[in-house]
Write a structure and sequence with these properties.
- By secondary structure, this protein is of the alpha+beta class.
- It is built from 5 helices and 13 strands.
- The radius of gyration is 32 Å and the shape is elongated.
- The protein starts with a helix and ends in a 15-residue tail after the last strand.
Length: 354
């Protein structure tokens, strides 16, 4: 009996229309006066993470992992094979030059790439609706709606982005008349005649199927709308990246597409800035990255895990001689990818040279 009364209390007969069915009338909001979310900017608000999730760095210090590395020195044979492999993968590059060129100099550098990943969770609340089909209504009379961060959900694997939507318990309210069709199930035909059937219905109209009207797309002909609070949870992996300078005529953006040898790894709920690294630029980049992520996420998201790594990326400049001219190409990454902007034996244009 109480259940029936509670459900009836969650159904309201509103005789007027609102501008948008997405925004519930004030009468509906009054029934959720106990809810501590403020709805602004179109019915949405960004929920701040509670203080219970704030952790002190001193309690989260983990063991830093240093990994061994062994990147081979680039030889003439390796450099030539890398170029041959590159040329053979291109439809309009000849391999004669790659086989006959004379390598004059190899200049190899080891670049350091620092990466910081911060995996965070944010929660956004918003009003939404769906057609009401006379099913049970989980309204405010059945209990107090939990706060955003009190709702327990399954967290995806660390550093894998995902977005999920959930209906907040005890936040559902039924509006008796759909604002789009005024509870008539169908939108009335317009004052002007249908250009396809001229309003007669004799010729099958693709829009109204010859009826002169069509089912309301908002309430799907149910005449009622179920409004409820929807919780949108977003798991995001923020990335900060820095690569030391190489002083070569090589496009730095290509380095983001290759792997390096991992020489340093540190993963924890929150990580410390790297100090006393052999390359001072890496220590400074670590401090800057952690500070930027902390500022960007503070008060808006909950940090679940952080991971910082340092990789060694080999980059070799190859100077060679072919048919009386001097040329350059570059070999980069553990994959030995090639960048040859001025390769002498090309037969057509329009290919991407990477």
């Amino acid at each position: 009996m109480d259940g029936e009364q509670n459900e009836e209390d969650s159904i309201m007969d509103l005789s007027y229309e609102v501008d948008s069915p997405l925004a519930p009338p004030v009468e509906l909001l009054e029934q959720l006066a106990h809810y501590d979310w403020s709805f602004q900017d179109g019915g949405q608000t960004q929920s701040s993470s509670p203080s219970v999730f704030l952790r002190k760095l001193s309690d989260q210090r983990g063991q830093t992992v240093f990994l061994q590395h062994s990147i081979p020195i680039m030889t003439e044979e390796m450099a030539r094979n890398a170029l041959l492999s590159f040329v053979n993968s291109r439809c309009c590059y000849g391999n004669r030059a790659a086989g006959e060129l004379v390598i004059q100099d190899l200049r190899q550098q080891m670049l350091y790439r620092y990466r910081l990943e911060t995996f965070s969770e944010s929660r956004l609340s918003e009003w939404t609706f769906q057609p009401y089909t006379n099913h049970s209504v989980d309204g405010p009379k059945k209990g107090t709606s939990p706060r955003p961060w009190d709702i327990k959900v399954h967290v995806p694997p660390m550093f894998q982005e995902e977005t999920k939507k959930f209906q907040v318990p005890h936040s559902s309210l039924v509006k008796m008349r759909c604002a789009s069709c005024s509870g008539a199930k169908r939108k009335a035909k317009q004052s002007r005649r249908c250009q396809v059937c001229s309003g007669s219905g004799r010729k099958r109209c693709s829009t109204c199927s010859g009826r002169g009207n069509k089912t309301c797309a908002t309430c799907k002909g149910e005449k009622k709308l179920l409004h409820f609070i929807q919780l949108v949870i977003t798991w995001k992996n923020s990335l900060f990246e820095f690569v030391t300078e190489h002083h070569m005529n090589f496009p730095e953006e290509l380095l983001a597409k290759v792997r390096g040898e991992n020489i340093f790894k540190d993963e924890n709920v929150m990580v410390y800035p790297i100090v006393d690294f052999p390359k001072q630029e890496i220590s400074l980049a670590s401090q800057r990255g952690i500070a930027e992520h902390s500022t960007a996420l503070a008060g808006r998201s909950r940090v679940l895990q952080q991971r910082q790594t340092v990789e060694l990326i080999p980059l070799t400049e190859v100077q060679y001689w072919y048919q009386g001219k001097s040329y350059l190409y570059y070999i980069y990454g553990l994959e030995n990818k090639v960048y040859a902007a001025d390769y002498p034996e090309r037969y057509c244009c329009g290919c991407t040279i990477i």
